[in-house]
Write a structure and sequence with these properties.
The structure holds two protein chains of two kinds. By secondary structure, chain A is mostly beta strands. Chain A folds into two domains: 138 residues, no CATH class; 159 residues, Porin, CATH 2.40.160. Chain A has one helix and 16 strands. The longest helix of chain A is centred in the first third of the chain and has 20 residues. The model of chain A has no long low-confidence stretch (mean pLDDT 87). Chain B is mainly alpha-helical. Helix content of chain B is 73%, strand content 0%. Chain B has twelve helices and no strands. Chain B is elongated. The chains are: A mainly beta, B mainly alpha. At the A-B interface, strand 1, strand 2, strand 3, strand 4 and strand 5 of A face helix 8, helix 10, helix 11 and helix 12 of B.
């Protein structure tokens, strides 16, 4: 007898296969990458684990006309986690279509993802997202409806509608303001409403460097009335091409959380991930070495003991 | 009162002095400007090599260096750019043995660029006010490894010399990040030059291309997305958003 998760999983898998078969003739294989890496991870429970993994990423695209484009992304990553003594995996597939005109842009994307990690025994996720934009010369208004269903460990369904405005100002500067209300229903009958206004700035100078700064505030309401959690966050992402064949990427987030359920519980999280990709001189850029590291630090007001976790990884990726 | 008159007289005197001094400085610059803008000839180079202190290490090579300039002149090339290269080499204290090959390399690049410009824009291109700048950015592009075929794509009448001069430096930077495929490059260049995006904003495409590369978008797809958005009437904002959608995290 199949349980509910398996039934939904089969349905989603069937839909994925059907969509792939339908779109396959119109897609062209454009980019296939395979890679492997070894990572050393220190988790917040103090365990140090080894995580050797391999992956394959396939990106397909088909430019049907100047105004209509189809994309597909398929990815599978798996290996061995010495902490859970099992095989972690992350398998995903997504198909999207974009339609653009002089004053509008519309995109629709559907995807599936299956995950097994040390903190997530088994999870299947399916989503449908859209982007509808009214485009003006130096600004645009957008609406992003989003629907997601998650199966395992706790089943849930989320509906969200993000609306906002984007504007180009100065040379190479962009700004966006958005507001995203999201409603999540859990299988135990409870629900959660999340409200998130967000401000984003991007800088695109005339040299190989970009910066993205974003900040926002999130309020979570349990069963649509009681405030469960509030947080403010700020994030900075930098991409830099300092010397030939090297791309350096830094992503840092700071988040301050106020949990209303336990009045004294306030938390501060700092998360930072650095990745350096360098193309090897032989192979004309088809082979890249990856060096990465990340650090996450959390402290709660009611528990003076700070938690931290970090990882370092070294990998190699080939473009076939 | 007497003091007041004296002060006024002094003030009046200093103002006149200031005016006279200003005029003297202004008119003394006129012949200097003429000197700086006068046409460079092999004799100018010879004089410079004899009199310029930073050219001292190259005294023994002076005849062969002047011969490179004579050869450039016989080819009908303007010598200003080659002279700039000579001064740059001397300022960087390039070893004497390397200076002549450097100048010969620059001469070859300038000849190639002039040929491309003549083929692309016609023989009147040498009278274009942007001709010297076009020669300079073209030679720099070739020195940076930008392909000749790519340069030919940019040097077309539909684009024009002024836009070409603004387009080449960002394209060279983009090519340095990841090689630009030529076929989609041609469509992109046509779409960009026909778009209302001012040439002063072309540099933004360097960092957009970097973000797309970091987001694992293949270069042909990046150029195709940029081209299609521009053809649909979109601008930098729409390109960034479509590339961000396509990027893989």
């Amino acid at each position: 007898m199949m349980n509910r998760t398996e039934k939904v999983g089969r349905k989603v898998l069937f839909m994925g296969i059907w969509l792939t078969v339908f779109f396959y003739p119109s897609l062209v294989w454009t980019d296939v990458r395979v890679g492997m890496e070894g990572a050393l991870v220190k988790r917040d429970n103090g365990d140090r684990v080894y995580l050797p993994q391999g992956w394959i990423d396939v990106a397909v695209s088909h430019f049907v006309s100047e105004s209509f484009t189809l994309f597909g992304d398929f990815s599978a990553k798996g290996g061995w986690d010495s902490g859970m003594a099992d095989i972690p995996y992350d398998v995903s597939g997504a198909l999207s279509g974009s339609l653009r005109g002089e004053t509008f842009f519309a995109a629709l994307e559907g995807g599936l993802r299956g995950i097994r990690r040390y903190d997530t025994p088994r999870q299947l996720l399916a989503y449908l997202s859209s982007n509808l934009s009214y485009v003006m010369t130096e600004s645009s208004l957008f609406l992003k409806p989003f629907l997601q269903t998650v199966r395992g460990p706790t089943d849930s369904t989320t509906m969200a509608l993000e609306g906002g405005i984007e504007k180009l100002f100065g040379e190479g500067w962009m700004g966006a303001f958005s507001f995203r209300p999201a409603l999540t229903y859990y299988s135990d009958g409870s629900s959660e409403l999340t409200l998130e206004p967000k401000l984003t700035f991007d800088w695109f100078p005339s040299f190989p460097f970009t910066a993205n700064i974003r900040g926002g505030w999130t309020r979570r309401l349990r069963d649509n009335s009681d405030v469960q959690e509030e947080s403010v966050f700020g994030a900075l992402e930098l991409i830099w091409y300092p010397i030939s064949h090297v791309i350096l990427q830094l992503d840092t987030t700071v988040e301050k959380v106020y949990r209303a359920l336990t009045a004294t519980d306030k938390g501060l999280t700092l998360e930072s991930v650095l990745e350096l990709r360098t193309g090897l001189p032989f192979g004309e850029g088809s082979c890249e070495l990856i060096f990465g590291g990340g650090y996450e630090w959390r402290v709660y007001a009611e528990d003076p003991q700070a938690e931290d976790q970090w990882f370092v990884r070294v990998g190699i990726e080939w473009k076939l | 009162m007497e003091q007041g008159i004296r002060r006024r007289r002094r003030t009046g005197f200093s103002r006149t002095n200031l005016l006279v001094a200003g005029l003297v400085v202004f008119f003394s610059w006129v012949p200097l400007i003429q000197v700086f803008t006068q046409e460079v000839t092999p004799d100018t180079v010879r004089m410079w090599l004899q009199t310029e202190p930073m050219a001292a290490p190259y005294q023994d090579l002076a005849p062969s260096i002047v011969r490179v300039f004579e050869s450039a002149r016989s080819e009908g090339l303007p010598l200003e750019l080659l002279f700039d290269k000579l001064k740059e080499g001397a300022a960087k204290r390039v070893p004497p043995a390397r200076l002549k090959p450097v100048l010969e390399g620059e001469l070859n690049r300038l000849l190639k660029v002039r040929k491309i410009l003549l083929e692309g824009f016609g023989k009147d291109v040498t009278r274009d006010p942007f001709f010297l700048q076009g020669m300079k950015v073209g030679a720099l592009a070739l020195l940076s490894g930008f392909p000749e075929e790519g340069l030919k794509i940019v040097c077309t009448p539909g684009i024009g010399m002024e836009k070409m001069v603004s387009l080449i430096p960002p394209l060279v930077e983009m090519h340095r990040i990841e090689a630009l495929p030529l076929q989609p490059l041609s469509s992109f260049v046509q779409a960009l030059s026909a778009s209302p995006i001012p040439p002063s904003q072309y540099g933004t495409f360097v960092s957009l291309y970097l973000k797309a590369t970091a987001g694992r978008i293949p270069p042909p797809d990046t150029l195709r997305i940029m081209t299609d958005v521009l053809k649909a009437g979109g601008g930098i904002l729409q390109i960034e958003r479509e590339l961000a959608r396509r990027s893989r995290k």
